[in-house]
Amino acid sequence: MLLSIGPNRTGRVGEGYYRQYMGLICFSKSPVTRLSEVPQWMGEKAFGLSGYTGNHIAVDPEAGVFDLFLGNRCHNRLSVVEPAESSLALGLNEDGSGEVAWPDGRLVKSSFQYVHQKDALLHQPAFDCLRSAGWLHEKEK
């Protein structure tokens, strides 16, 4: 059962209706790395779960590994900037990180653009840690 959760079954269903089928409300690995909840270093049967607040887990049942992040990108944080181009005027860095002064004077950390940084800040360090511990090996080409 576990090995059948991850494979992508996206396609036409019924009367030509197109949908992305993700099994048990899990995400399959997307061919577009930036849009995937599953790291590219995980296998084709891997799956991920991610929530709006920033919590994330990805599991590769074939390799027997996972990466897990328990965080909250919303509580006492700036998470949306509209229009996005105005983020620099707020004093944020190009990647969306930094702090913004709230009207009451508090400095609030930014999680703006967080979702676009998860590969570098979550998936790659998890891969490096697993590989250095000997739990994960480079895939043979």
How is the secondary structure organized here?
Layout: E1 11-13, E2 17-19, E3 47-50, E4 56-60, E5 65-69, E6 77-78, E7 99-101, E8 107-110, H1 118-132
Parallel strand pairs: 6-8
Antiparallel strand pairs: 1-2, 3-4, 4-5, 7-8
Task: Write structural notes for this entry.
The protein has one helix at residues 118-132, and strands spanning 11-13, 17-19, 47-50, 56-60, 65-69, 77-78, 99-101, 107-110. The model has no long low-confidence stretch (mean pLDDT 80). The protein is globular, with a radius of gyration of 18 Å. It contains 1 helix and 8 strands. It has one domain. The chain has 141 residues and is an alpha+beta fold. The protein starts with 10 loop residues before the first strand and ends in a 9-residue tail after the last helix. The chain has a 3-stranded antiparallel β-sheet with strand order 3-4-5, with helices on one face. Strands 6-8-7 form a 3-stranded mixed β-sheet, with no helix packed on it.
